[in-house]
Amino acid sequence: MLLFILAGMTSCFGINADIVVNQDNSGTINLEYRLSRALDSLGRLEGNEGRPPIPVGRIDFERTVDRLPGMRLLSYASREDTRDRIITTRLQFSNIEALVAFLDAAGEKAVYTGGESQTLSFILIRGGRSRSSGLDALIGQITQGYRVNINMSFPREATMAVEGPLQSDIIDFIPQGRRVSYSLPLGAVLSAENGVRMEFRW
């Protein structure tokens, strides 16, 4: 579901995902995303034909976790500020397989390998987009203020590898430790010519 949401990213969208993995591979997901109120008012959410529906209501999340064994919705909240509608949820997963199913219900972008050394990888956004300096500048302008933040905490030392934008003063990357993270502007994600892929080892 998370990667599905990211696949529906538009020019007015920001997301923060904070995932905690426990010793027994259960854990929690704190998920917050910001949707432009202007975008919402144009009717581009929740099932418009030709656009992937972005879940915004509590019932959307309840239906999702009901279909995913090992997932549970702990809390949901929605509020608005002057610019955005802000959705905040807290979910619980009983094992990594449940987390993978939540990340990628279609089974196309996330892969988990268990064992003494565990690996979780997923494609944040696919590459292959045509680009130009003018287009990149436009994307940067219209996505200003929106970021994509992915944080994962583990019960032991972990590493995070990223295939995507890295060398920039506007990108925050912590690749090693019990908490690893990758944060960048939405514009940098959408402008990534070869996409963005992440791999976690712990």
Helix-strand layout with pairing:
Blueprint: H1 2-7, E1 13-21, E2 27-36, H2 37-41, H3 58-66, E3 71-80, E4 84-93, H4 96-103, E5 110-113, E6 119-126, H5 133-142, E7 147-163, E8 172-174, E9 176-185, H6 186-190, E10 195-201
Parallel strand pairs: 1-7
Antiparallel strand pairs: 1-2, 2-4, 3-4, 5-6, 6-10, 7-9, 7-10, 8-9
Describe this structure in words.
The protein is an alpha+beta fold and 202 residues long. The chain has one domain (2-201). It is 21% helix and 44% strand. The protein has six helices and ten strands. It has helices at residues 2-7, 37-41, 58-66, 96-103, 133-142, 186-190; strands at residues 13-21, 27-36, 71-80, 84-93, 110-113, 119-126, 147-163, 172-174, 176-185, 195-201. Strands 1, 2, 3, 4, 5, 6, 7, 8, 9 and 10 form a ten-stranded mixed β-sheet that branches. Mean pLDDT is 83; it is low at 42-52.
Low-confidence stretches: 42-52
* Total number of helices: 6
Arithmetic mean pLDDT: 83
Please tally the β strands and state the result. Answer: 10
Summarize the structure.
With 202 residues, the chain is α+β, with helices and mostly antiparallel strands. Helices cover 21% and strands 44% of the residues.
Quick tags:
202 residues, alpha+beta, ten-stranded mixed β-sheet, 6 helices, 10 strands, 21% helix
